[in-house]
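2024-03-11 09:14:02 INFO queue: dequeued item Troponin I1, slow skeletal type, len=100
2024-03-11 09:14:02 INFO validating residues
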Amino acid sequence: RKSKITASRKLLLKSLMLAKAKEEWEQEIVDKQSEKERYLSERITPLHTSGLSLSQLQDLCRELHEKVEIVDEERYDIEAMSGMEGRKKMFDAAKSPTGQ
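2024-03-11 09:14:37 INFO prediction written
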């Protein structure tokens, strides 16, 4: 059975498809970066420290430190929950006599 498309035409189409995929991938990267910048600009307010006294700066640092601790705890909890299944499988494998 003969192919209806020549090898050179097939190669040309493949290279065109790869070029189009590369363009879309690059555009996706740009879109993700702009979305990230937009999201961060909405969520994060600029930090104004000029004109603050020493005690106000210390209070601000304490407040920011508390927020960082909360985020770190949440991140740790998420990582622990997502890794729970993998660790359970490792422990089960270690308990089995064959190690599998």
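2024-03-11 09:14:37 INFO annotate: The chain has two helices and no strands.
2024-03-11 09:14:38 INFO item closed
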